[in-house]
Amino acid sequence: MTPLTGYLLVAALLFSIGLAGALTRRNAILVLIGIELMLNAANLNLIAFWRYSPHPEALTGMMFAIFSIAVAAAEAAVGLGLVISIYRHAHTTDLDEMNRMKG
Amino acid sequence: MTAVFYIVAALTIAGALAAVWLKNTVHCALALTVAFAGLALLFLELDAQFAGFAQILVYIGAVAILVVFAILLTRGSETPVDTVYSRNWFWGFLIAAAVFATLGWAVLHSTNVLPHETAVPAVTVLQIGNALMSRYVLVLEIIALLLTIATIGAVIVAMAEKERAQ
Prior knowledge:
The structure holds two protein chains of two kinds. By secondary structure, chain A is mainly alpha-helical.
C-alpha cells in the first residue's frame, strides 16, 4: 500500500462518517458537523494528491485546499446563523419536527 | 507508511466517530475539535505546513467555537430523552456504508498513472504568498468578497427580527 492510498482511505472513511452523521442525526447542528467532516475529507484528498504529484511546486492542490477551507468557514457561519434563526421561529433544532412544508 | 501516520489517522477517525455518535451535543463539538486537530496533523505529515496551520486557525480557532456557541444559544445542549437519531437512521447508515464501500473499492483497485513522488516538496510560505498575490490574486479577491458577504449574511439571518408595526 502506497502512502497515497493510505491517505485516500482515511479521507474516504472520514467522508463516510460525515455522511452518516449528516443523514442519521436529528439535531441540525450535528448535521452541519457532518457536512464539515465531509468538506475536511475532501481537503485531505487535495493535499494528499498535491504532496505525491510530480509538480508540487505548482501549488495547485495546496491552493485549492486553502480556498476550500475559506469557503467552508463561510458556509459554517451562514449555516449556524440559519440554525439560530430557525430555532427562534420553531423553538427546536430537531429536523424531524421541521415538517411545515411537507405536502 | 510510518507509525506516526497510523497514530494520527486513528486519532482523527476516533474523533470523527465520536463527533457523530455521542449523545450529548457539547461532547460532539469537543470530539469534532479532536478530529480537526488530527486533520491538521495529517496535513503537517504531508509537508503542507501552511494548510496545516490554516486548518488549526480556521477550524479549531473559529469553526469549533462557532459550533459551541450555536449549541449553547439553542437548546442543543439538552440531550433528548428518546433518541438522538433520525427516523430514517437505518437508510442513512446504509447509504454511508455503501459510499465507503464504493470509495474504498475505487481507491484500492485504481492504478497509478502518475509516478509516485516521494521527494519532500520544497515549498516555502514565501512561495505561497507570491502565488496568492500573482497567479491566484483573482481567486483571493473573490474569496475575500465571499467571506465578507457570508459574514454580513450570517449576521442578518441570525439578527433578532423587529416587531412589525401594526
